Amino acid sequence: MLKALIFDMDGTLVHSDPIHLRAFAEVLGPQGVAIDDEIYHSTIIGRTNPAIFASLLPHLGVEDHEAFADEKEAAFRRLALDLEPLAGLMEVLDWAKAQGIKIALVTNAPRLNADHMLDVLGLASYFPVQITIDQVERGKPDPLPYLTALERLGVRADEAIAFEDSPSGMKAAKGAGIYSFGVLTGLSAGEMMKAGADATLADFHDAGLWNLLKQKSAA
Question: Does 36 participate in catalysis according to the annotation?
């Protein structure tokens, strides 16, 4: 029986990738690192900041990477002021709430970003359980963030559904044993299925999603 829905944040609750790209470009441009769609998708999407900055600024040390990461996240929060939930998301959240289905957030973003984005989107009250990168020893693609969410929700993996938009996030969700939808805000259905998605959706109006939600909630 379905007892919980677990959502990634960036690219899943909201199509925020273009804003992240702008923030990375703003911070890294003066360092001679050009950020375009290709670099964003190959090097940035779904990865943790330490891994991203180690790849893009390999000549610098960990302290510099951390400083650039903080600068980039501050730039993102400054730019991310006009966000809208992905189409159909509110219907899913309201339906889950009415059904008594638990809801959680699992993100590689820092707590400051999660608080900012949920506040701008008006969604904070929907996510009593929030797992951010600050709370776990290992971020996605490790399954630990999802395993932590399952523990805090008090549900088994087979009682939950996850939503992810990146290969690393999908690997984490599937590594925790959760049925997972790939959200197609940045990658193709083929790319998300290759990453392990059980199914894909363009937005939360997807008929296949609703059929599964109703089927599992009635089980």
Answer: no
Give the number of other Cβ atoms within 10 Å of residue 26's Cβ: 16
Task: Identify whether 10 is a catalytic site residue.
Answer: yes
**Domains parsed from the chain with CATH numbers:** 4-15+83-217 (3.40.50.1000), 17-79 (1.10.150)
* Residue ranges, the chain, pLDDT below 50: none
Given 10, 17, 165, 206, which residue is catalytic? 10
What pLDDT shows up at residue 203?
A: 97
**What pLDDT is recorded for position 17?**
87
Give me the amino acid identity at 196. Answer: G
| CA distances (Å), origin 155, targets 1, 143, 148, 158, 178 | 10, 15, 11, 8, 11
* pTM of structure: 0.88
